[in-house]
Design brief:
Order of helices and strands: HEHHEEHHHEEEHHEHEHH
Number of strands: 8
Radius of gyration: 21 Å
CATH architecture of the largest domain: 3-Layer(aba) Sandwich
Number of domains: 2
Distance between the termini: 45 Å
CATH class of the largest domain: Alpha Beta
Low-confidence stretches: 291-295
Length: about 300
């Protein structure tokens, strides 16, 4: 197993799932954890495992630091960082995480919400994540619009009239991928569908049901792509050029966790189940964080 692949597999398949779990350890010995991971793969010789773990450690540290940067660039507190102790990583569940790192602790329900999103098995199930996220944004009208041939729009929403951003309208494409990031090509295909849909009769109905045409202070349309995965750098650059709002799983998990516990989310899921297209049913009426369990 080449060094680069070992490092990537370890971080994505072992380390991050462990750190983002509901109850990760407060401290992790990186070299020991990496050596144990290697031993469970192809390497049976303990001396060989320790040698490879030591040799690949600089690359591993650089790769982890890049992952930490991924969080901070999105204005999110990273779930882990290195300590002054050699080979030690401190996680967001450590009781002195804020004092030691200077980062804020992630919401208490973050790990459970992230695990819940990861448990979705397809786009139909993932739509509920998008609806709950729109509610967290302050939307008081949320409609499921997904249907074959609808042109790349799965959810639409309108901000509450009492919100500072009233008359902001969201058109959401939910992309569910397994072990793959949203590429520039995928993003451009979905955006093309959205542009084409704007000339269709169904898009006119979206506008009517959202009462877009009745707004007295303008109407700002936001096209958003959400995913249970991540976006490539080229996709992020394309989104900047085309005015597309992107939200990855880590962002969805964070903002949903800021508003709800996993108990609340499961109650909402029990009430709504798998979302189906219904332009006359306001999903927001069933997503009331204040009335679904305790935080």
């Amino acid at each position: 197993m080449p060094g680069n692949k070992s490092v990537i597999d370890f971080v994505h398949d072992h380390l991050m799932p462990k750190i983002l779990s509901p109850s990760p350890p407060g401290l992790i010995n990186l070299r020991d954890e990496f050596a144990e991971f290697l031993a469970g793969k192809e390497f049976e010789d303990d001396d060989r495992v320790d040698e490879l773990a030591e040799r690949w450690e600089p690359h591993l540290r650089r790769y982890i630091n890049k992952r930490i940067d991924d969080w901070t660039c999105l204005s999110l507190s990273p779930p882990m960082t290195f300590t002054d102790e050699e080979d030690k990583i401190i996680t967001w569940r450590h009781p002195r995480y804020e004092a030691v790192t200077g980062f804020n602790v992630l919401p208490a329900s973050y790990g459970a919400i992230d695990e819940w999103i990861q448990g979705k098995t397809g786009e139909r199930e993932f739509l509920l994540v998008g609806a709950i996220f729109l509610k967290a944004l302050g939307a008081n009208l949320i409609l499921a619009t997904d249907d074959p041939g609808d042109g790349g729009v799965d959810l639409v929403g309108r901000t509450d009239n009492s919100e500072p951003l009233r008359s902001t309208f969201f058109f959401v494409q939910a992309k569910f991928l397994k072990r793959k990031r949203i590429s520039r090509e995928i993003l451009l295909i979905e955006y093309g569908k959205y542009l084409q849909a704007q000339r269709s009769e169904i898009f006119g109905r979206y506008r009517r049901n959202l009462a877009m045409n009745q707004s007295r202070d303008g109407a700002a349309a936001v096209y958003m792509v959400i995913t249970n995965s991540e976006f490539t750098d080229s996709a992020r650059q394309a989104a900047v050029e085309l005015n597309i709002l992107l939200r990855s799983r880590k962002q969805l998990s964070f903002w949903i966790a800021r508003n709800a516990s996993i108990a609340k989310i499961r109650e909402v899921e029990g009430d709504l189940g798998i979302l189906r297209k219904d332009l006359d049913f306001n999903l927001a009426s069933k997503i009331d964080f204040d009335k679904v369990g305790d935080q």
